[in-house]
Amino acid sequence: MSDSKLLRGTFVLTLGTYVSRILGMIYLFPFAILVGTVGGALFGYGYNQYAIYLSIATAGMPMAVSKFVSKYNALGDYYTSRRMYRAGMKLMLVTGILAFLLLYSLAPVMSRITLGGSDLNNSLEDVVMVMRMVSVALIVVPMMSLMRGFFQGHQSMGPTAVSQVVEQLVRVVFLLASTYIVIKVVHGSLALAVGFATMGAFVGALAGLAVLIWYWKKRKPYLDKMVNEQTVTPTRISTVSIFKELLTYSLPYVFVSLAIPLYQYVDQFTFNRAMVAAGQKEIAESMNGIVQSYVPKLVMIPVSLATAFGLTLVPTITRSFVNKDYNVLQKQIDQTYQTIMFLVLPASVGLMALAGPAYTFFFGTDASDAGGNVLLYYAPVALLFSFFTVNGAILQGINKQKYAVLSLLFGLIVKIVVNVPFILMFHEIGSVLATALGYIVSLVYMFALIQKHAKYNYSEFIKRSVLILIFVAIMGISVKIVATVIGLFTTPGRFSATVITIIGAAVGGIIYFIITYRSSLLEKVMGARVTGAIERKILRRNKQRSA
């Protein structure tokens, strides 16, 4: 396959992934207006369970299958790739059904633990219903994941990208439409509306699977021809051995991708009980919705954008490590870390400076003071999320993936140990602080391992980070001043929050761009190509204006 075709495929897949992620974030803003914080908590109860069971059922199959197919296709053994596909589809159907049955049957037990044994805003029956409604999607999604991996293994990224976007689009449309109809048209219960919202995962998965089946039928003649014209003797490998090989590829991806769902899982089983014990029973579920469903979505926006830049360097990091070119490896890790710091830190500080208005702008005035306070503390965690994701990828790139798993376990143990005490002391903020502490422990371990095994020196990164911190501080203070001044001349409410958020974000972005551009920091971190493109656009506009 030519480099241009490979790059085009990678671009298509990346674009599809991030369009899908953006759709998966922005739907919560109108959804929050419809169901409020209590509805957000109920949605989180079901969806957090679904995320865990889905990760277990799929077991990182897209990446594992892609790697398996690429390996055997490179050997000219298309027959073994097809054997894996047939056996894998059967396995995914079985694991999907088992995951569905397990979540469906355990829903009452999980619901009691989630509610902390207390009667809160959402009843036990409501939580059970939502968990059972979302569990149906587990039957379909694992098979869809394997098909995506199979196409990616053939260097065909279009099917995955298109199916991801279609799946997410159908899910979001169904979710918002069903929620609106239940609440506004037929005046049904909040629980029923949220139950149908979680069913969107199943409807979206059906749409995504339909897209993949269409691609499969379209390309099957070509794929059959590859198998029929194979000249290489098929590899002698049992079905059990195929599954073992897949698991060796998939497990590291599973553990790293499970980080955020597992942290939320801890909260799901401890948050309400701890809040009740702290004398916060009346607001326990409302705060749960803010901490688990709404604020994390805002925080994940800069995380997704930054890790998209950082993770593009991971394949080159792997190549440099294999070639033992540690000088190049040093520069590549430096660039990855500096990119994360350069993009995520200002976004985090900007969210902190605009925490109250930003929460009100996106989610409305329902518990906006508490939501803004949670966002203030949660925003810096975005930087921890980003470094954890990138460090996990780097450790996999240098063939030390087991340490990525260990780091997750260490951080998770810290989260489990301190979560309840922190919530008792600091209420809803305690959950955020426990999450931050867990990630810090994981990162300290990861940074030490990368220094040891990749022979990485942090001196250049630390120097550059100090400069970024100074510029971000200037930006943050400026945004806070602008927000305060506008607040003096506007009446508190959603309109005021919208004005403050938009103007504050624009001012912060402009100030940060100017000082990083003038100081050459932008060029040093993002490269001459980026600054060159910006300069050409600015010059072109100036010429057009002067003409």
How are helices and strands ordered from N to C? HHHHHHHHHHHHHHHHHHHHHH
Largest sheet: none
Uncertain runs with pLDDT below 50, 5 residues or more? none
Global morphology: globular
Distance between the termini: 46 Å
The Rg value, from CA coordinates, equals 24 Å
Tell me what portion of residues adopts beta-strand conformation. Answer: under 5%
Number of strands: 0
State the helicity in percent bands.
Answer: over 70%
Secondary-structure-derived class = mainly alpha
- Kindly report the average pLDDT value: 85
Task: Describe the overall structure.
The protein has 547 residues and is an all-alpha fold. The protein has a domain at 1-28 and 36-233. 86% of the residues lie in helices and 0% in strands. The chain is built from 22 helices and no strands. The chain has helices at 3-26, 28-58, 61-74, 78-115, 124-135, 141-153, 158-185, 190-228, 239-257, 259-277, 284-311, 314-322, 326-353, 355-363, 368-378, 381-397, 401-426, 428-453, 459-488, 494-518, 521-526, 528-546. The longest helix is centred in the middle third of the chain and has 39 residues, at 190-228. It is globular, with a radius of gyration of 24 Å.
